[in-house]
Design brief:
By secondary structure, the protein is of the alpha/beta class. The protein has a single domain, classed as Rossmann fold, CATH 3.40.50.1010. The protein is 51% helix and 14% strand. The protein is built from seven helices and five strands. A five-stranded parallel β-sheet has the order 3-2-1-4-5. Strand 4, helix 7 and strand 5 form a beta-alpha-beta unit. The chain is globular, with a radius of gyration of 14 Å.
């Protein structure tokens, strides 16, 4: 079974029919991702929940609750692991690595899963894991 990380953007796109990436992620989810294990973190779910409104928010939360994606917990030590990465990838003129991105970076290090669903291509193409590997964008 293939595994992939899921950023907030695809979570939003899956449940917001007006999102410009909606059709792309719906097609991925309905054509082949049934055999994939999807993983994310609570910061990504929180960010998506904040950006979605009304019924779309509820549908996304129900989907997560029903196991559409496995949500990995973070403990306080995880934040200590993330802060050096956030600092490294928040140097001007680049954009700032937010907590959701840092949590997926942490999850990639922890699980060895580097395949990721994200609309944040610019940042995830520049992130390098501690061993030098790059993320594989789906």
């Amino acid at each position: 079974m293939k595994r992939a990380l899921v950023d907030a953007g695809p979570l939003i796109a899956l449940f917001d029919a007006q999102d410009h990436s909606h059709a792309h992620y719906m097609q991925l989810l309905t054509h082949g991702f049934e055999r994939w294990q999807l993983h994310t973190t609570w910061p990504c779910v929180t960010e998506a929940s904040h950006m979605l409104a009304g019924v779309a928010r509820l549908e996304m939360l129900r989907w997560v609750g029903l196991g559409g994606v496995t949500v990995f917990p973070l403990d306080p030590q995880s934040l200590l692991d993330m802060t050096p990465w956030i600092q490294t990838y928040s140097e001007p003129p680049r954009s700032v690595m937010d907590l959701a991105d840092a949590s997926l970076y942490w999850l990639a290090v922890d699980t060895n899963v580097t395949r990721i669903l994200t609309v944040d291509h610019r940042d995830f193409l520049r992130y390098r894991l501690p061993d030098g590997r790059a993320f594989e964008l789906v």
